[in-house]
Give the backbone structure.
Amino acid sequence: MNGKFYQILIIVLFTYVCGVAIYTSWGLFQINLRAKNNEWFYYSVNDKLYKLKVADNETAYAKGLSGVTKRPGDYDGMIFIFKEKRIMSFWNQGVSLDLDVFWLEDFKVIGNDTLPAFSKSGLKIITPKQPVNYAIELFKD
């Protein structure tokens, strides 16, 4: 085989390795994006990019999206960032809109639930099946 074949092979392998490195570190890239603005976080679910309000402390966890009575035009939901993986419960007390909840482990979706508005179903509590370090609540369309 000639030298041109090996040059092309090296370029293809290098491109593949770089692609894998970028794909697997995507969560770290998203964290760096967040560091520029602690109020907003951008995340893609089902090939759609969402702008999310950040909840990263106990006060923000407790409030969540309760009290939001109509879908805001400037963001799509909320991301809950936990310092360590854990099982937590989400409830719909004070929630006026239907929500889709995605459970994430290291930025990979491992499950999802629906959290209906309190007025539709009364009190409902949902919990992930395994410990997670992120949860996303999105306003249902």
Notes: Helices lie at 3-24, 26-35, 58-63, 118-121. The CA atoms of residues 31 and 41 lie 8 Å apart. The beta strands are 40-45, 48-55, 77-86, 90-91, 99-105, 108-115, 125-126, 132-139. The longest strand covers residues 77-86.
